[in-house]
Amino acid sequence: KLRTRRSLAADIMLMIFLGAFGIFSLFPLIYTVVSAFKPMSEIFIFPPKLTVDNPTLDNFFDLSFILEGFDVPLSRYAYNTAVITGLGTLGTVMLGSLAAFALAKYEFPGSKVMSELIVYALMFSASVTAIPNYLIMTYLGLVDTYWAVILTAIGGTLGLYLMKNFIGQIPDSLLEAATIDGAQEFTIYWKIIMPLCKPAWITLIILSFQQMWGTTGGVFIYSEELKTFNYAISQILAGGIVRAGAGAASTVIMMIVPITVFVITQSNIIETMGSSGMKD
């Protein structure tokens, strides 16, 4: 094996470069958090500062006051977000892993065509599929319900592609041995496939969770009682300069949950991206 030899000076320069790039990448996050504790007189200082001269909690108090003026209580927005995020994430993982298991380990008429279509579907952005999704939900009578948001998210192909490539690396001999022992397909899926694919479905949970957590309901939900917490935050941000402080505070609150989940599970995400076949 060839080993790359670098001098101590080169290693130091590399660490400095990576450190500087990391700090640059963290700048928006740090600035957002710091801005939540800045008084209005410091928020609009240019060039922006990553420090607070006079830290305050007034932005969070203002946010609470603004939310009290909404027709729907904050707890209702939080409940809607929890339901949509929970059901959407669960459905994405279950449907994606089950379909991926069938496509990766069984051959049936049209399986190769379906696999190709999954790859092609990844090229379409959400804006391209927005109108077809709306027409389908309208036809099913699901507009202005949780299910309009949940089902369109579950129908995405990224999770299916991710799980299929990961499951494809599991030896067929392992599944054949389980079949000889009398295991049925669902038993093989639940007791063999899912444990071996833990990094993949944890990654899928994170990706789906972040997507669902940040949804506003789009064009599917019109009733105020069904709108999400992120919608309430967007209404605050739409208030302009006057609500800049409250907007910064609300953004920090929205970031806490997905960042916490990501930090806890980041090792599984790195493992999945390195070995699930995303390179294919």
Key attributes of the depicted protein:
280 residues, mainly alpha, 13 helices, globular
Structure description:
The protein is mainly α. The protein has 13 helices and no strands. Helix 4 (74-105) packs parallel to helix 7 (146-154) and helix 12 packs across helix 13. The longest helix has 32 residues, at 74-105. Mean pLDDT is 80; it is low at 276-280.
User: How many DSSP-defined strands?
Assistant: 0
Largest sheet: none
Q: Tell me the number of helical segments per DSSP (H or I, 4 or more residues long).
A: 13
Helix content: over 70%
Order of helices and strands: HHHHHHHHHHHHH
Low-confidence stretches: 276-280
SSE diagram, text form:
Blueprint: H1 8-35, H2 40-43, H3 58-68, H4 74-105, H5 111-121, H6 126-140, H7 146-154, H8 158-167, H9 172-180, H10 185-196, H11 198-213, H12 229-237, H13 244-275
Helix pairs in contact: 3-13, 4-7, 4-8, 4-11, 4-12, 8-11, 11-13, 12-13
In short:
This protein has 280 residues and is mainly alpha-helical.
